[in-house]
What does this fold into?
Amino acid sequence: MKHQKSICIAIFFMLITNIWSQETNRFKIHTVAFYNLENLFDTINDPDKFDEASPIMELSTGRSEVYHKKVRNMAKVIADIGADETGNAPAILGVAEIENRSVLVDVVNDPFLLGIDYGIIHYDSPDNRGIDVGLIYQKKIFQPIHTSKHTLILYDDVTRKRVHTRDQLLVTGKLEGDLIHLIVNHWPSRSGGEERSRSKRVGAAKLNKRIIDSLQIIDPYAKIIIMGDLNDDPINVSVKDVLNAKGEKKDVEFKGIYNPYENYYKSGLGTNAYRDAWSLFDQIMMTQPLLETDYSSFRFYKAFIYNKHYLTTKRGRWKGYPFRSFADGGFTGGFSDHYPVYIHLIKEVE
It folds into this structure.
């Protein structure tokens, strides 16, 4: 499969560099990102989880070495996201496919990130394999005020048995004094096929919408950022119909949601690939107040897919795909089967 087509990255970065070089004294810029860390599990068998099915636990030898290399790889990518434009790692990063808090502790204490002083927000989810979401944040930039987890109650359409999946994480805090809300997601997979599993992701979107509605009842002008691996593309029912997310800023009404990744998807770009087709499951969306042009507080500026060459497989049957960590029963030395996504928020400096 050929590498997904370029988004004129060199020209874009030349332009954005020129903008920031001219306006360095006018604007402050921070990166908010999301990254699916692809099965970041430790090497300890948890009897309360089905973690023995994780790729690292299936290795017969060298688990500790693989784990440390995997942690180092995740830390390197996180340190790089958005740094070309800001000179800094993400102020806030949502993550998916982590086993527990301890693996995040290892990541933020890796030499690539240790000097940044990241805080961690994490809750254990009821997911059968123990897969969780989480959030890390630079303590000097973002101060959490309230955190909560929201459980998605689902039942299998055939067996009617409870389906245990990831919770949704809500974090409210202040980004250098500006109140924002962040919802971190990892919606149910497409196991069994997109159509058969669709209702589960619709259910996840409905839970997301209830969280958003509850925040907007308290404050109709709430700045809300929705991020995650949705296992759906920007044009699917869960995103387009349930969340009613718009792909054009001009179409976003009061209390509405903007999805900057819809146009990327329509252009053929993606964050993960399967059977020679790209999907854009990893997305960051936001509510209308983040689109306003009064930059006395932080507003949305631009969305990105972090698809640097080192994150892409160079040869073999997965050539052009994201350079994943695990394949064919072993560790590849790679990073993740998903590219990270990120946005920039800017604020005018007084």
